[in-house]
Amino acid sequence: MNVLYFAWVRQKVGRGEEVIEHAPALRTVGDLAAMLAARGGGYAEAFGDMRRLRAAVNQVHAGLDAVLAPGDEVAFFPPVTGG
Amino acid sequence: MSVNIHIQAEDFDVSDEIEALTTETTGAVASFVGLVRGGDDLTALTLEHYPQMTEREIGRIAAEAQARWPLESLTIIHRVGRLTVGERIVLVAVAASHRAAAFEACEFLMDYLKTRAPFWKQEERGGTTRWVEHRDADAAAAERWRKP
Description:
The structure holds two protein chains of two kinds.
Chain A: E1 2-5, H1 7-13, E2 17-19, H2 29-37, H3 41-47, E3 54-57, E4 60-62, E5 73-77
Parallel strand pairs in A: 1-5
Antiparallel strand pairs in A: 1-2, 3-4, 3-5
Chain B: E1 2-8, H1 14-21, E2 28-35, E3 42-49, H2 51-68, E4 71-79, E5 81-84, E6 88-96, H3 99-116, E7 119-125, E8 128-131, H4 136-143
Parallel strand pairs in B: 1-4
Antiparallel strand pairs in B: 2-6, 3-5, 3-7, 4-6, 7-8
Helix pairs in contact in B: 2-3, 3-4
């Protein structure tokens, strides 16, 4: 899966994207976020409180319960502030 | 019905965009222009976005507006990159036969852009930067369109 980060999430984790292998333990967006938070450091800061984050799967807004599949593009970002 | 969506660093000309929307049957064009607001020592905004998702999400928002109101055409331009105080950020322009549809669709599109389209603003004040927090008022503005 290609995992993308935007705005302060990108700054805290120190990169804009990375490839993470899909695995049975990463069934949902929430599972992936929990795995990332467990990495510690900037990841723990970014993913420690999922209420502050939003996600998208394959460029469509998605909740923490959205189910992941191999090859998905998953993005994590703060609530949007455009316009 | 034509839908024009542009994500760009460059500025736009509001008159040209409105002119391009109108046909012989157009009776009303409503437009909104968002600007970088000065004050509180703000010097600039930098707009980041999620390129692959932005146009798709704005396309979904535009399709919803078309389904709800009898529109002739619409244009949405959203700039990205660093913009200084007074610069234009966003244009929404809607052409219709009558003004009610144009006014309402324009407001709907802005409310949804602010809460759904993946853009993020970073403020610059002197030498420091800060990500803009989302406003509950924006979410409430978008939410009211759900009510019957």
